[in-house]
Amino acid sequence: MFPFGRFVAPLSVPLDGACFRGGTVTFTYHFFAKPRFVGRAQVQTAEDLCARLLSVAKACLHNQRLPLDVGGARLRVQSSRLIRDFDEADVCHGILSVEARAIVS
Question: Is 45:53 a contact under the CB 8 Å cutoff?
Fold first, then answer.
């Protein structure tokens, strides 16, 4: 059922220093959308719907702080893009790349 999103495998990198420790986790969230119809009339293109989903996700995640047991993490949206889905011609594929960084002093 469209639209839908999927969290894709994160990449984790430790951060170590003289006075801190922590890590960075980069992940992508993928959105898939088809054109939206009311009856037989198309009311929204797949690209417009997917772009709207990306915009809402970016607004919700960018520069947010997540509480953790050892402190907190800051989220930062690194990039977003829209592409045509290779498997289905009428599907738009949106990709949001996000970095979460946690530092413990």
Answer: no
